[in-house]
Specification:
By secondary structure, this protein is mostly helical. The protein has helices at 3-9, 11-45, 50-62, 65-72, 82-107, 111-119, 124-154, 167-176, 179-207.
């Protein structure tokens, strides 16, 4: 039996695990957006905070995923449920590209355009919402794109702590030395990553300033 026959015969379980995978990725990416973009905006307004904030996000990226899951296990409320723990870990990993791209996008807006806005009497808040954010939107979307693709890949590790997702097939296949099981988890995860990259890539191009 090849991997496609296996996936067809077990399509119900493949579909269920794919939905679990999408849930983990979707919730963690949304939380990362809600935290990372405001942090990116903050450090453009408070430059002294840029090194600590970006440095902390960089340090999180260097921690191996299984080790981070282990560090978070003793946390109250979070460690009680595997899905909460996995979502928190994925959110932390997704922060760096969102903070960095938001910061880079806003700081990359042409200073002449910003000065023209000030000359028209716009306040700093109006400059942010009416000039800087619209012009940096494509760069911010690029950060969301990177974060989503990273999360799809890392979410497979969540199965190691019982959080579900397509990693269930991968870890089961590793334990049984069964390549069909490994591919049954790896192939849909790869398709999800490619789909996220293509969809957000097109959105990024459409929002690029002309």
């Amino acid at each position: 039996m090849n991997v496609w026959q296996f996936m067809l015969e077990n399509r119900g379980q493949v579909f269920e695990l794919t939905l679990e995978h999408l849930w983990l990725v979707g919730v963690s990416t949304l939380l990362a957006v809600l935290i990372g973009i405001p942090l990116g905006i903050l450090i453009t307004r408070q430059p002294l905070l840029s090194k600590p904030v970006l440095g902390s996000a960089n340090i999180i990226q260097t921690i191996p995923s299984l080790a981070l899951f282990g560090f978070l296990l003793p946390a109250p409320w979070i460690g009680e449920r595997a899905d909460r723990l996995a979502i928190l870990a994925l959110t932390l990993y997704a922060l760096l590209p969102l903070i960095r791209n938001t910061y880079t996008g806003i700081r990359g807006v042409d200073p002449a355009v910003v000065e023209a806005g000030r000359g028209m009497g716009l306040t700093e808040r109006q400059l942010l919402w009416q000039v800087q954010l619209p012009l940096s939107l494509s760069v911010i979307i690029a950060g969301i794109r990177v974060a989503a693709v990273i999360s799809v890949g890392l979410a497979t590790i969540a199965a190691a702590i019982g959080a579900g997702g397509l990693g269930e097939f991968i870890f089961r296949g590793l334990a049984m030395v069964n390549n069909q099981l490994i591919l049954a988890g790896a192939i849909p995860a790869a398709f999800l990553a490619i789909a996220a990259d293509v969809i957000l890539g097109r959105l990024e191009k459409r929002l690029a300033p002309r």
